Queue: 2 jobs
Job 1
Amino acid sequence: MKNESESAPAIECRNYTFAYNQESPVLHNVSFGIQPGEHTALFGLNGSGKSTLLRSLVGLNRGEGEILIQGIEVIKRNLKAVRRQVGYLFQDPQVQLFSLTVIEDVAFGPANLHGDEELARDQAEQALESVGYRGDLFAPCHTLSLGEMRRVALAGLLALDPAILLLDEPDSFLDKRGTGMLTRLLQDLDDVTLLLVTHNREFATSLCERALLLEDGVLSYAGPIDTAPEE
Amino acid sequence: MSLERSSSVRSVTRQWWCDRDARYKVSFLLFAVPGVVLYPPDQVGGGLYYVLISAALAFSAGMKFSLRYFFPLSLVLIIFAGIPALTAVAGLTDRSVSHELVFGGMVALKTLSIVLFILGLGNTLTASETFAVLRWFRLPAGIIFLLLVGYRYFQLFTSEVRNILEARQLRLYERSALTGIVGALRVLLHRAFDHAEDVYMAMRLRGGESSIPLLKPLHASGSDPAAFSLLLVLIILPFLGML
């Protein structure tokens, strides 16, 4: 599943511009590159275009310019190949969960990938254990607390063993223990490329070595996280 | 918005006409009035009647909007007109192909017109006006209640559908969008209903008053969504038969 090639950046954005309508462009000529295995934080005030950028990286939005994931251009005919490489965590965990039960939801991705229901279920259980989910495997997803939904949503991505993780505010709705667990979990993913949206500097610094800063849709900083300016 | 019957038909009608823009008034006079002249709908002129009424509303709603639905609605026309003709060609009926074409064509025009009518209506009347009209025509309060609830939560529902489809596609789901929605229907109904109830409770907590009861304390079991879906089908089925 993971691309062994080290030559191409894992995520590359070239002069990417996106607007929901002509009057209000959201992203302006955004260009950056993230190397395989690199952990990068994406900072920016609310409404600066962070989530829009993440959505563009997985092909949910299509603007002008180029986006490449593991050297594959993110266009309609390549979306299947792109999405095999990328796990995307929505900002709102309720949006991410669509199955009737927890185990069904987490096993959804692996079942689509290889078709083996039993194997998918095993992978789902392992993923749930890794994110510290201790609830009922057959609980309806919509009855979980937001923190539990966040863990289950993350498990659904990890069960697919992606090469790249795009996490949109993964620390929101988590208590202190949950944030600690998440930090340890992500720190162990050495060979996974990580792009993390967060407002929590401490959380970002413990995980990432680089940072990007979006201000009103413009990438104003790309460099070491230690010297990243405040939002 | 009041659901009570208007006290003066004349004042309501006058207000309705005054509120319409010039394009609507022109289309109404050019298409709808001649359409009425071609009544009754049981004869050949009936098909034209429905077309003209609907053209009036579709035109007033805007050509761009109408054209968006042109191809799928043309498909409806071809299916309804073509199937009876094919049965004649295959010798499954005693009637001639030309007769079946005309019959199917009239049914298709009637179907098309009713659909355009509904689409046009949706774009030329506000929600309040639409429901007031339905109440004025003595539509059962229960039906209006369902329509009100449906209208209030329709945006929420379509938003949930879109979210589910996106989330599925991102986790390598490759079957059709329709299969995806059907597969997620139970969860969709649960989520949309729960979310809608939360929104409505928030409105009530901020002073909104309504006689519509909250159903939050009720807990849906596994068979409830299936029963609800069956109820929806039973409500819609008679309308399909009338076409």
Job 2
Amino acid sequence: MKILVTAKRVEDPESKIKVKADGSGIVQEGLKYKMNPFDEIAVEEGLRLTAKHGGEVVVVSIGPKDVQEQLRHALAMGAARAVWVNHPGPLDPMGAAGLLQKVVEKEKPDLCILGKQSIDDDQGQTGQYLAEWLGWSQGTFASKLDSLESEAEKAKAPAIELSADGKTLQVVREVDSGLATLACSLPAVVTTDLRLNQPRYASLPGIMKAKNKPIEELTPAGLGVDVGLQVEVLRMSPPPPRKAGVKVGDVQELFQKLKNEAKVL
Amino acid sequence: MSAPRANVLLDDRTVEFILYEMLDAEALCNLPDFGEHNRHTFDLFLTSARTLARRVLFPNYRTIDAAPPVLRDGRVYVHPLLKTAWPQLVDLGLISATRGPEVGGAQLPLLVASLASAYLMAGNLSAYGFIGLTSGAAHLLEAFGSTELKARFMAPLYAGEWTGTMALTEPHAGSSLGDIRTRATPTRAGHHLIRGEKVFISAAAHDLAPNVVQMVLARADGAPAGSHGVSLFAVPNRREEDGTLVDNDVAVSGLVHKIGWRGLPSCVLRFGERDDCHGWLVGEPNRGLGQMFQMMNEARIMVGLNGVATASVAYQEALGYARERTQGRLQSQRDPESPQVPLLAHADVRRMLLRQKAIVEGGLALLASTARLADLAAHATDAEERQRAKLLLDLLTPVAKSFPAEAGFESTVLALQVHGGYGYSSEYLPEAFLRDSKLNSLHEGTTGIQGLDLLGRKAVAGGGAALHALSDEVSRTLARARACELDPTWAEQLAEALAELVETTTALAARGAAGDVDSMLAHSHDYLTLFGLVAVGWQWLTMACVAQEALRRGGKDEAQAFYRGKLAAAQYWAVTELPRVAGLAALCRSAEGSFSRLEPDWL
């Protein structure tokens, strides 16, 4: 089976992220970048599925030339080849889904796996748009019940499972009240939640092999997609700093404050 | 107040600084042997190593430390968490990372492999130990083994299917390996029969892999006494017969109850209790020690890295604690109602933290510089450059091993001190780092032996050629420091310390040449300490130059803070450590005899 996965370049959450004084965005200088962690989970799941059922994982990223770093990372994890949509400008979820739709039509995968959201803007929309516009079934927030990779967890059925005839996919997804299990007909779009798997580390042999794997360059114009923004970012601001707490003298005072000030009683 | 930060083990920005700003690791990629690499392959590998160390190794560190391996019915069982981590460690590809493609390696510069390894060591020394020992055993087989031995033993080691170790020490002979008694009797079938006892053999038996290959020093029947009669043998715990692995008569008679490195079993072994222990000669007969010592530079660099890595994780732990824990008020604050300040606000705590930073980062820079010399010594295209790098590598190796072993231990003591009374409890981690760290001054040549090696051999060999080469290097750094307008006293301190080192070496060499070796070597330990202060002083002045040049180019506040931290540590070394050199040099030259002429019954 052929699986298309995404690898978005995002700010490393371990970097110190600051909002620019004029609120027009974040300070880029000195920031580190990495693959969106939810996409890393998508790459891992794709690799596990192809290891089991055969086929290949194709990884796609949209952005300036720097996104090749994230593509190489996915290639080092084991993806077979990469597609780079060269688009240095800003992009919203609809634009991303539009570009991905054209890449899908070109690549014709059986399955697309995307992170459920990217940790930079946390929009969580691209996978759903993509499935809708392709007219494919979708299984979002693919997940597992328990903690990652315990022996007990490994023994259980995987959260994404291909049926024996290869025509449908069973997806366990996280919902408010627990887990729901869906059957999706293929082709389908699946988005990954945090507990789906623990992504592998790029091994040194994998890193060396990735150097010679191909990265195909595409452009929005070449794909015939207008990536004009539907969503405009007006202003960014940091969350307000937390105020210092207060010490209460006794339980009575605590009750008074909870009742009269916090109004939770 | 921000949420408590997880211990980062090593500071990523400092690793990046040493690799790319100080040592120009990317320039190594211009050498044909490293031509397949670039900054991107380096960074991806570092990311994998640090992520594994932070996510898997360090979170399990305390649990593994608390429950050491057990010996049951002759078999050794390691902590189950190690069994989970082991395949992930193997998959990183570190065992063969620095080796060439002909043995399945990736020809990664030792410089990069060392810094990647440092994260794993800082995360969990014991877990890393299996990797380091396997890599070392495989490298010995690669260097000296026959084609057949390579296929049989080296290949599964590099692939991580089996593990390896070195079996040198015997109950009566550790530092004195020429005195070993393990025997090897040749057979017509080509192998030898091994008989003898070894102690302190790390990872000699465990349940992580189906087999262990031990590189055993033994004396073949009829071989001369002393170090010239010692040969090297490959002895598997299980040998292949008719396609299956059968017991090779290697018995574990006990486990050593160690105070640190508690995840890694240290075994007492009996070879050939039933006269059925097969060993295969590796390399030339009677050359075992020499062959082993050809691998010593890398082994000693690894021990130095262990020291720095543990000191680093301890420093990060102390730094995190000092930022979060509030205690007392500044001396100038008289108001008892005022809030308590973080530990970090107290000058004496900052002194301890800066000292740790200076030791950890100075040590890491020294190790990285030494590893880079090892890369150049093996892979530079120019023969003269290779030779010069080898000269410096040999000189600096005992220092790169001992400085982190000794100063690194002191640094972990400071990390405990920062924790106050809580540091003395096993509720907090520093006590464990202290225990782990202590091994570094003992194995792969004690500090005493490193001092003798440095002063008795390395510093005086070839008319002091290596020291001349080092002087040239330091002089270049001094010129750079003057050019970038650092505080001139820092360079002056280093210049004076270097002059003391050279003068002292010359004087002691002359004494040795005149036949008075005892007086020459009386203070070899002080000489080693002195040398370490100078070598690390050189590293700090180099880092100060890089930082100063970056500051002069300008940049944002955060970058400024990073570089200013480097200048502060460089200043600290110049004003508190380098002045100690003169006193140590005087002691070495005086050959003062308080202990060397001590009669045993005076004690």
